Amino acid sequence: MKLSNETVLLNQSIATKEEAIRLAGELLVKAGFVSPEYVDAMLEREKIVSTYMGNFLAIPHGTDEAKKHILKSGISLVQVPAGVEFGNGDKPAKVIIGIAGKGDDHLEVLSTIAIAFSEIEVAEQIINASNADEINAVLEGVEL
User: Fold this and answer.
1) Spatial separation of the C-alpha atoms in residues 4 and 77, rounded to whole Å
2) Does a structural domain hold residue 141?
3) Catalytic: 69?
4) What is this structure's pTM?
5) CATH number at residue 43
6) Residue 1: inside a domain, yes or no?
7) Which residues contact 93 (CB under 8 A, 6 or more apart)?
8) Cα Rg of the chain, angstroms
9) Which residues is 99 bridged to in the sheet?
């Protein structure tokens, strides 16, 4: 799944994880991947369990009940170089990837992203990327 300029926000300064999740969700809405209700479900999921994955990555996504609000599979990315606290102590999220997976697509997307970010070098390249093309090139170069 590729990111486009309309699904990426770079160099953001964000105060709260709720704001970060809402931004990632709004990108999914604007790109036609989900209806607005899905964003609320992303915030609801975060209340149940943190979507922080380590290596400066958070992957907010909706609850199972929210799958009806997914129009088609897609991802969004919000880059926060200074980080935003996701309730995980001293390691803030610097990359927030919103996911909307139609059917079982979300499992494959989650797996691909988790593998990519298992290497801190990959995470740092994405944290320092200056456009969507750079991020796509990094993700495409990851051995899965």
Assistant:
1) 9
2) no
3) no
4) 0.92
5) 3.40.930.10
6) no
7) 17, 20, 52, 56, 57, 58, 80, 83, 84, 85, 86
8) 14
9) 61, 75
Tell me the C-alpha distance between 18 and 122, whole Å. Answer: 25
Q: Which of 22, 61, 69, 94 is catalytic?
A: 61
Extract the tokens encoding 15: 């105060």
Among 138, 111, 107, 121, residue whose Cα is nearest residue 53: 111
**The predicted structure's pLDDT at residue 104:** 78
| Helical pair 132-140 and 105-116, crossing angle rounded to 10 deg | 90
What are the 10-residue block averages of pLDDT along the chain, 144 residues in total?
88 96 98 97 94 93 92 95 85 94 81 87 93 88 58
**Four-point Cα dihedral 83, 88, 90, 92, nearest 10:** -10
Burial class (CB within 10 angstroms; exposed 0-12, middle 13-18, buried 19+) of 47: exposed
Q: Exposure pattern of 83-113 as b/e (b: 16+ CB <10 Å)?
A: bbbbeeeeebbbbbbbbbbeeebbeebbeeb
Instruction: Count structural domains, the chain.
Output: 1
CA distance 110 to 127: 18
Q: Range of 104's domain?
A: 8-136
